[in-house]
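name: query_chain
kind: protein
chains: 1
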Amino acid sequence: MRIQKTAAIAILTLLLIAGLAWQFSPDAHVVVNDHEIGGLFGISLLAGGLGIGVLATVFALACTGLVIAGVSALMVVVAGLVVASLFISLLPLALPFLLLAGIVYLIARPSRRTA
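structure:
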């Protein structure tokens, strides 16, 4: 339902632009193969050109959005790999501290013996 409403608004906008172009420049014409085409057919060609331009713009914006989304997902993966590689590379330095923390935990914990 939402897409139909948007498409209807886009078509009405194109018709409004074509109507205004026809109203404010009645001698407007389109040149095709060195022949001038005017009147209602020329305005129809103008509206068709505007429609093709709008569709091309929407397609370009959609492609750009997909590229930006893909690049951002790739950057998240690369950032995760960088953090994981830093963690793995620093693990040998942290191992003595982890062993010491484990020994202190084993010594300091309360005994489980019941009297």
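note: The mean pLDDT is 86.
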